[in-house]
Amino acid sequence: MAAKRDYYEILGIDKGADENTIKKAYRKLAKKYHPDTNSGNVQAEQSFKEVTEAYTVLSDQEKRKLYDEFGHTAFEGGFDADAAKAYSRQNSGQRAYHFENGNMDDIFGGIFGDMFSRGGSGGFEYQNFTGNGFGGGSYGGRKTFRRKGADLHAEVSVSFDEAVFGCDKIINLQNQNAADTSVQSLQVHIPAGIETGKSIRLRGKGAPGSGGGQPGDLFLKIKAGSKAGFERKGMDIYTTVSIPFTTAVFGGEVTVETLYGNVLCKIREGTQSGTKIRLRGKGVVSMKNPEVHGDQYVSVQIQVPQNLSSEAKEKLREFEAVERGGRRYA
Question: What is the mean pLDDT of residues 239-254?
């Protein structure tokens, strides 16, 4: 297997590059090698994967520190950063070793012979020293380098009302491992007020760890559906209501549909088309505070009379004549 390339080299940046430089380099290369613009180009696809992998590590401060200290080995199965750092501190002042391309066995073997060996589950094992440095202190017991499992990501579709009011859903996730295509069923609580693009974190439901490490987490990205007649913008809801021409002229009342049932709204005399009515507290509940709700904004649309009788048309003409004459219509 070919040795992995240096992440800084892949992005074409210096090791001292700041976050902004890293992000700009990634965006430029990701655009260049993106599969959407390189259909069927296997080399471009591989380059895109390399660029994405490099950015994932270097854009995360903790991962970047591990990479700068231990190289690619820090992200191999069975690696335990705490144990490796403890070992480095214990032997500071002796020699400095950099673990690259998974050759920790070769380095450890060259120093201590068979004292270091690969343990079960692909993890590294080493002896715990009770003496000082390379001195004649005693040692015993084995410890495995543990590594937390990777986080997994999936998308969950919910209806408009499920996102607004919350619910419990059973979701089925299929294992992406070619050797295991089993389906896992999980019950997930969808909190009231969640919206498209937000994610729910399920701790410990990600990929299993190695060497006894904890499993990763599962992040479920929400995709909320739409609802006829309702538009959601954050916690606020926008709707329309159609009223008769006479109601707009003389005023009156109209029934408006809300998320929580119908309400009766007062229409003022002379209401114009496009007028907005604000219904306080009739919007979506806040995810942070269940006592707080958004508002509903109702846009008024006036119905234009159609198929008028001769008598009705005559009355409207009289009205028009009065208005043109400058007299007030009563």
Answer: 94
pLDDT for position 253: 95
Tokens of 242: 């159609």
- DSSP letter at 13 equals -
Q: What are phi and psi of 149, to 5 degrees?
A: -70, 160
Give pLDDT, residue 113. 40
Backbone angles phi, psi at 314, to 5 degrees: -65, -40
Is the alpha carbon torsion for 192, 198, 204, 207 positive or negative? Answer: positive
Q: Which of 44-53, 60-69, 136-145, 250-259 has the highest mean pLDDT?
A: 250-259
Structure token digits, residue 186: 């999980």
* Rounded alpha-carbon distances, angstroms, from residue 89 to 72, 93, 94, 133, 294: 20, 9, 10, 10, 55
β 124-129/117-118 pair status: antiparallel
Q: How far is CA 18 from the centre of its chain?
A: 24
How far does Cα 76 stand from its chain's mean position?
Answer: 25
Tally of CA atoms within 13 A in the half-sphere of 17 that contains its CB: 22
Which residues are CB-neighbours of 295 under 8 A, at least 6 positions away?
236, 237, 278, 279, 280, 281, 282, 283
Six token digits for residue 97: 């070793």
Read out DSSP for 131-148?
Answer: SSTTSS--EEEEEEPPBP
Bridge partners, residue 167, by sequence: 190
Residue 189 CA to residue 200 CA, distance in Å, equals: 9
Residue 200 · residue 169 · CB < 8 Å: no
Half-sphere exposure of 168 (CA within 13 A, CB side): 3
- Report pLDDT digits (tens) over 23-52: 999 999 989 998 888 888 889 888 999 999
Nearest to 206 by CA among 167, 172, 175, 169: 175
Cβ–Cβ < 8 Å for 49, 29: no
The residue type at 42: V
